[in-house]
Write a structure and sequence with these properties.
Blueprint: H1 2-12, E1 15-16, H2 17-29, H3 36-48, E2 52-57, E3 65-70, H4 72-83, H5 87-91, H6 93-103, H7 109-123, E4 131-132, E5 135-136, H8 145-175
Length: 177
């Protein structure tokens, strides 16, 4: 999620690491705060891979700022990751929301539809947080009120997500014709 977010935000425009960290925290900080111990190694990996560059600009004080810019290889990697997301980016809700934050950068609506269909296919598989002999359990079967709440909330979210996915897939499919 961190790499995808860095590439996505730098696709928008070059920025210094502090500003990038603020944007990353706004996107996922309430779930996983972005520490310097995670951000700077990720920036260094992307720089070594040739996906971003940095240069110095004067700062507001005496200290110059490192400005990060996406390279052509970085833009290509972002487009690849958006068009061909890893399985976890489709099955994990927070990862999927991060993917959605940048999915609009794919220019072809047909590519966007392929990604959304993969998410919809995931949702169409029976699943639960709790199983009985390999069978997914439903909220109505739960006696524990907290587990029942987990399943109720998950079912409600899944229903809303599936409705949005179907509508958006249809809209995008009509756009690409």
């Amino acid at each position: 999620m961190l790499t995808l977010s860095i590439l996505g935000f730098l696709y928008e425009r070059p920025m210094h690491a502090y500003e990038l960290r603020r944007k990353l925290s706004g996107l996922s900080g309430h779930i996983r705060p972005v520490s310097d111990g995670a951000l700077y190694p990720a920036i260094n990996r992307l720089e070594k891979a040739g996906q971003l560059t940095r240069h110095q600009e004067p700062g507001s004080g005496a200290t110059p700022r490192q400005v990060l810019s996406l390279t052509e290889a970085g833009r290509d990697e972002l487009m690849r990751r958006l068009a061909e997301p890893a399985e976890v980016e489709l099955t994990d809700r927070n990862s999927f929301l991060t993917l959605l934050a940048f999915l609009g950068y794919l220019k072809d609506p047909a590519d966007q539809v392929r990604v959304l269909r993969r998410r919809l296919e995931f949702y169409e598989q029976p699943a639960s947080y709790f199983y009985d002999d390999g069978r997914p359990m439903r909220a109505a079967e739960m006696t524990d009120p907290f587990r029942k709440a987990m399943l109720t909330l998950a079912a409600t979210t899944k229903k809303a997500d599936m409705e949005w996915l179907r509508t958006t897939i249809e809209d995008l499919s009509n756009t690409s014709r």
